[in-house]
Design brief:
Layout: E1 4-9, H1 13-21, H2 24-32, H3 39-58, E2 64-69, E3 83-87, H4 90-97, E4 104-108, H5 124-135, E5 142-152, E6 157-160, E7 163-168, E8 174-180, E9 183-189, E10 192-195, H6 203-211, E11 225-229, E12 244-247, E13 253-257, E14 263-267, E15 275-276, E16 282-295
Helix pairs in contact: 1-2, 3-5
Length: about 300
């Protein structure tokens, strides 16, 4: 079958400003009022457009290709033979990862000098060579990065690359029952964070440092997850003993909602894509059988 290259992007900050304010001068005035300048944003956009055009131009004419915006990922049908090229920042790889089932992903940073990436680690030229190699069936080094899944008892599943958050939509106190390795506790907290090794360099790392936790965060390809309860509140009705730990392969963290409204589960910081977690619903969070196939 003729290869298909799927190039994934998101609207740049400059495009967002122009859409909101209409003209360059209006956008520049808006930023100046806040002590910021438009020129660095324009420079990033120019780098992004340059990298994008290099990638698109390198796709052989006999191959299939398509470009998709991040906002349309939930409506796009990926094919098993696709080669995915994410041009942008690290978050873009996380955004696309949950929609894939083993397709290789190549991360391209438009400007590594300004935005060095962990997931978008390649310049456009290197990304192109890897794209062509993968599509041609040649061997390349691929990292199999572990993902996390949250399963509701009604059958809904949410998958994420970095972490899953369980809590209250407005970040008020979340109330629930949590169970881990035979220990069960009713809690009131700022929410529960369950992180992969990829996410361990971000939000989870910050939480672990702040609380000086003894949990050793997993590596990106290690099939274990770390969980942290944020600001558990001790009271006669709630405890704060089950507040962190490591989930081994196949092991799940059990949470039962006691929130009458606005309980949510979301992944990788995307609150708009949250699952409703209402009173009495049961949630199991564990490592996903799916992996992100990230081309090194």
């Amino acid at each position: 079958m003729v290869p298909r290259i799927v190039v994934v992007t998101r609207r740049s900050e400059l495009e967002g400003l122009l859409e909101r304010h209409g003209t360059r001068s209006a956008a520049a005035f808006f930023l100046a009022e806040r002590g910021q300048e438009l020129e660095p944003i324009e420079a990033w956009h120019a780098s992004f457009e340059g990298a994008l055009q290099k990638v698109l131009a390198a796709v052989p004419r006999t191959w299939r290709r398509t470009r998709i915006d991040r906002s349309d990922l939930d409506r796009f049908l990926f094919e098993p033979e696709d080669v995915v090229v994410a041009v942008g920042q690290d978050g873009l790889v996380a955004n696309v990862a949950k929609y894939l089932t083993g397709q290789p992903v190549i991360g391209v940073s438009p400007d590594p000098s300004r935005q060095p990436g962990v997931l978008v680690r390649h310049r456009a030229s290197a990304g192109i060579s890897r794209m062509l190699a993968v599509a041609a069936g040649r061997e390349v080094t691929v990292e199999l990065r572990v993902m996390v899944e949250a399963h509701l008892d009604d059958g809904q599943v949410l998958r994420a690359l970095n972490e899953v958050f369980v809590g209250h939509r407005t970040h008020q106190s979340a109330r629930y029952r949590i169970a881990f390795r035979g220990a069960e506790e009713r809690q009131s907290s700022s929410g529960v964070l369950v992180s992969t090794g990829t996410g361990a360099t971000g939000w989870a790392s910050s939480v672990a440092r702040q609380r000086r936790a003894d949990v050793v965060l997993p590596a990106p390809e290690e099939p274990r997850l770390a969980f942290f309860v944020r600001e558990a509140w001790p009271s006669p009705a709630t405890g704060c003993d089950v507040t962190d730990g490591l989930l081994d392969p196949g092991e799940g963290l059990q949470i039962v909602s006691e929130m009458p409204e606005r309980g949510v589960v979301f992944g990788d910081g995307i609150e708009d894509d949250a699952l409703v977690f209402g009173w009495g619903q049961r949630l199991t969070v564990r490592a996903s059988p799916h992996r992100l196939h990230l081309v090194a």
